Structures are given as structure tokens and as C-alpha cells.
Amino acid sequence: MRDLGRGFGYLMKGQRWVAQHGKQYGVGLLPGLITLVLYAAALVALALWGTDFVGWATPFADDWSSPWLGLFRGFLTALLFALALLLSVITFTAVTLLVGQPFYESLSEKVDISVSGFAPESGLPLWRELWISARDSLRIVLRAAVWGVLLFALGFIPVVGQTVVPVVGFCVTGFFLVEELTAVALQRRGVEARERLALLRGRRQLAWGFGTPLAVAFLVPFVAVFLMPGAVAGATLMARELVGEEIGEGADDPASAATGGRP
What's the rounded Cα separation, in Å, for the pair 24 and 228? Predict the structure, then answer.
């Protein structure tokens, strides 16, 4: 249970770090704003034409009497929008990180420097880093999509679908968010996707403590954009713990940074 609190603590430390570094925070907002506009347009389109899509996909119900036809298709439309919202929360981070790869790399490096005076580098050219990031993000999104479809189906179960399934959904979403966010710092350390996943599975409660409240917050419009820079900063701090690196108390103290966080 202590790891849950530690995970949430890293989320708060990341938000505090960007609050103290206004320039980095401002630059870090740009990728999120671009992605938000794209996702908002897609969700608005689904809200406008989702009913038509459900009607097209369920021709067998055309002859049902009222009110069953309306209730059935209304329920499916609501579930479709909920699934789209869940997938948008999961994929928003991946797309934003891909769009803002250079910005978040720089932010993550500065967090490392503020803590230890040194930022590990992958030594790979930018195009290679973008390719690895896109490839790994696609793998995460595919796994998340499988979970999304499964949870969508379980949502039909009475009582359980309206109580247990949403909680599990937030935990799953939170775990995938952490996997995506820590990749920024861990990729620079040469930690491959499979190894990153193993590290997080070994510290699930740490990941849930960080990612679950973030997943809940991301459901609020515009919140994801403003929390993303701090989420990247906090995930960098958490990544340091995952690989056994020290996290100095004087992270924002120039004197501490100059000595690598050592007295």
C-alpha cells in the first residue's frame, strides 16, 4: 500500500517541478494543445453521428417496437461513446508524446539534471528515437484496445458492469499511462519496451498510485493538456526509482544539482 502513496507523490512532485520552471511548462503545453484539438474534433463527430452509426450497425433491430428500439440503440450509443472516451484517454498520452517528443525529451533531461546534475542520453539520432517511440506507442495502444474491448463487453453485466468494471478500467488506463510516460526517461537509459513493462509489473501499486488519479483527471476537458508537462516530470522521477537511481531531496537546489545531489 505504501507504493500507492509513493506513486501519487511522484505525480505531485512532477506538477510542483513544472510550476517552479515556468518556461519548461509553457513549452510542454504545446503538444497537448495540438492533440486536444484533434481529439475534440473526433469526439464531437462521434457525438453527432454516433446514433446513425449504431443504427447502421444494428439493422436486425429495425422492426423492434417502441420503447425497446430506442432504449437498445441509446444504450449502445452511450457505450460506444464511453469506449471512445476510454480509448482517447489511453491514446492521448501516446499521441501527445509522439507529437511533442523533442519537447518532452528536453523537459525530462532537465528534471534529471535538477536532481543529479546529469542526464543520461540514448546516443540515438532523433529519427531513430521517434521511430522507437512510435513503434512502442503502437504496441501499447493495441494492448490497451484489447483491454478496452474486453471492458466494453463486461460493461453489459448487470451491477458488476456499472461498479467493478469502471474501477478496473481506471486502473488499467492508469497503468498504460505510466508505461507511456516513463518511456520518455527510460528510453534515454536504453531500457527496452519489454524491460520497461517488466519493471512496472513488478511495481504495480506504484504505477497505479501515479496513473489512476491521472486517468481520472484526464476525463475532465482540458485537464490533460495542463497536467501533461508535470506528468512527464513526475514520471522521470519515478523512472529513476525504477532503475535504482538516487533522487536527491534538493532537486531544485543548484548547489545540490552541481554535486549530483550528494552532500
Answer: 12
Rg (the chain; Cα; Å): 20
Say how far apart CA 109 and CA 24 lie, in whole Å.
Answer: 11
Place of cell 476537458: 221
Q: Residue 121 pLDDT more than 70?
A: yes
What pLDDT is stored for residue 242 in this prediction? Answer: 92
Separation CA 208–CA 128 (nearest Å): 30
Give the pLDDT confidence of 45-72 residue by residue, as tens digits. Answer: 888 888 888 888 888 877 787 788 778 8
Q: Is the peptide bond before 67 cis (omega within 30 degrees of 0)?
A: yes
- Those residues whose C-beta lies under 8 Å from the C-beta of residue 41, and which sit 6 or more positions away, are none
The CA-to-CA distance between both ends of the chain, in Å, stands at 31
Cβ pair 229, 25 in contact under 8 A: yes
| Nearest Cα residue to 230 out of 21, 31, 5, 6 | 21
* Under 8 Å between Cβ of 251 and 18: no
